[in-house]
Amino acid sequence: MSEHSPRHTAVVGCLVRNAANQVLLIKHCKRGWEIPQGRVEEGENLIEALRREVLEEAGVEIEPGALAAVWSMLSPPAALIFTFLGRHLSGELSCSDDSVDAGWFSEEQALDQVTGEVMHDRLRVLLDYRDTTVYRAYTTRPYQVQLETSLAPR
Description:
The chain is of the alpha+beta class and 154 residues long. The chain has one domain (19-150): Nucleoside Triphosphate Pyrophosphohydrolase. Helix content is 20%, strand content 43%. The protein has 3 helices and 9 strands. The chain has helices spanning 46-58, 107-113, 117-127, and strands spanning 9-17, 23-28, 32-34, 37-39, 61-73, 79-90, 99-105, 134-139, 144-150. A hairpin with a 5-residue loop joins β5 (61-73) and β6 (79-90). It is globular, with a radius of gyration of 15 Å.
């Protein structure tokens, strides 16, 4: 890796709710149940990436909302994960190359479905969002939060 190569991958994720206040989860072929998420492509802004990822993984259009949490994965491969809240606008759930299933769940069901430690913690933070963006830096193997702070205006 050259001295000027990017050191982090940019990722977006979204906690999508429908009119019944259910949470959208997709079942990733390797990681299991999680919120829709994926890498931001070169030249793409975060909101475009968010809409594209949810459409690709779950088959639905969303209205992006608040930036609820920013995660900094410090373990290689390093990533910055921007997680938003969103509202379902249209479309029926469908799968893709990255997802083998998709569904709407109550908050409790969603927490039961998401078994990966990092994803479960991410889901819990998003479900607990209260108008203040959370920042967490963490390492994996084992999962350990190194820093947590609020990004609320002072």
